[in-house]
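Weekly sync notes, structure subgroup
Attendees: PM, AL, DS (notes)

Item 1: joint prediction request from the bench team. They want all two components modeled as one assembly rather than separately. Inputs as received:
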Amino acid sequence: MPSHERSFRTPAVILRRQDFGEADRLLVVLTPGHGKLRAIAKGARKPAARKTGHVELFALVDMLISRGRELHIVAQAETREPFLPLREDLVRGTYANHLVELLDRFTADQDTGRAEFDLLVSALGWLCTDADPRLVARYYELALLALAGFAPSLHQCAVGQESLEPQDQFFSPPDGGAICPEHRAGLERGTPLSLNALKALRYMQTRPWEAARVLNLNGPLHLELERVMLAYITYILEQRLQSVEFLKRLRREER
Amino acid sequence: MSKAVPQSVTQLIEAFSRLPGVGPKTASRLTYYLLRAPDEMTQTLAAALVDLKTKTRYCSVCFNITEDDPCPICADSGRDATQVVVVEEPLDVLAVERTGAYQGRYHVLHGAISPVEGIGPEDLKIRELVERVQKEGVLEVIVATNPGMEGDATAMYLQRQLAPTGVKTTRLARGLPTGGDLEYVDSITLLRALQGRHEI
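Output from the run, pasted for the record:
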């Protein structure tokens, strides 16, 4: 239960920031105990200010926050984990944008709890390892969907509720998961979901990251998983994801 | 707003409120200050605002804000056309010019890549930069985007785009600010400062 002292100490991940006033920055931070907060980091655009560099995007920062009437004030900030590789690799950095964008869209200001915070911090850390960033993204998406109450149904047909047979299926965002060919017949919705894609999604949905990270999937399977997950997420959010567009562009330009 | 306040006053307060960093209180203060100010002052301000939009445009070479096209820097034959500093905003040109140490030219991107905000390369003057490098015999592109997540992403993207042209692409060095205190420096800056140390 958050206390109501004038100021409080908390770890925080910087989700968004924008210039504010003469030399300040308005931050949107995610904290484990106070949800998403908007706070001003005064003077943070001046190179010699003490907070500058400690309020960098996607960094995990220990903050002392003073409560304000409308906006909080960042009284102190010290970087705990800068997630440096995200700043040195364009693709990994863009995946970090994707993780943060999803969290931001799925959570309202106050309802974000420790689980979402821990998941984001963990996933940003995974992106800094040599793990395939596509796997990190899919694993994170499944975990975040579960926390938000939208875990896709991957073991039972989302329409008929019977156990899915080990065969190619369909995925239907409006029905909330995989549907069998039998129940799909006659429905106008649902796109093909290969058995391998279904197995990979199930594996990621039920295993810890340490087990999932060693999954060795080929390119077309990665693309299929991305297509299925993004179609589902876009359906839930009812809006396009910005970071994904840039990821697709990078991929096109790499060819 | 109350009907006791004349329409023309309300209109100006609302116009000021739309400016970045100006809240309703400041907007009201500015409006009432101008109401009491001499006519000459308000007329100068109004004329300056009109000129700002009618007389300025983007330089067709570097995309800085200018009254003449090309801008004075691009038109100056005394400046080194083989070096181009790439900045995010026109104000950054002024910052580099203040050093008095740079004699090359500029290219203003008008922003930085921010996937989460939906700002992509197509929203910036990146294609124009690549074309310029290909056409104008540029030997070095110095990327001076802001040292943050968006500025770094922009720098990395530029490096990818410029690599096929063979131009030398450099990034401004990063380190400790003059007058700063080592105790408060963040680990990224300190790491960069260590990497970029030089012999004395």
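Discussion: The mean pLDDT of chain A is 91.
Action: AL to compare against the crosslinking data before next sync.
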